Amino acid sequence: MELAELLENEYKVYVDVFIKHHSDGRIIPFAFTWEDGTSYKINKVIEMLPAASLKAGGTGMRYTVKVGTKLTNIWLEEDNEVQRWFMEKKEL
After folding, report:
1. Helix (H, G, I), strand (E, B), or coil: what is residue 91?
2. Sign of the four-CA dihedral 19, 39, 67, 85
3. Alpha-carbon distances of 63 from 1, 2, 4, 14, 53, rounded to whole Å
4. Range of the domain at 23
5. How many domains does the chain have?
6. Among residues 32, 44, 61, 77, which is most buried (max CB within 10 A)?
């Protein structure tokens, strides 16, 4: 692994996400588990659009979600037909 790749991913956290697949094809996240094992309920999905994470690297469908009173982003990335969810670390 190259240094640039390590630096690109030091802010990326892959998370487990609980989702609902709707009959119209939409995928809506409703909770996620952070790297420390804490689960968080997503109160509302504010926006969904294709976007890049400039901080963590990677692209995919970005979901802007409300968790409690805070807004955060969660990405659904697809690489060779494998889908994974990631979020950005706030601090290192």
Report:
1. coil
2. negative
3. 29, 29, 26, 14, 11
4. 3-88
5. 1
6. 32
Q: Identify whether the C-beta of residue 17 lies closer than 8 Å to the C-beta of residue 85.
A: yes
Tokens of 60: 């995919």
Q: What angle do CA 57, 17, 74 make, to 5 degrees?
A: 35
Token pair 């706030």 is at which residue? 90
Q: pTM for this one?
A: 0.84
DSSP-based three-state secondary structure for 53: coil
Consecutive H or E run containing 3: helix 3-9
CA angle, 47 as apex, 88 and 75 as ends, to 5°?
30
Cβ-contact 48, 66 below 8 angstroms = no
Distance CA 26, CA 36 (A): 28
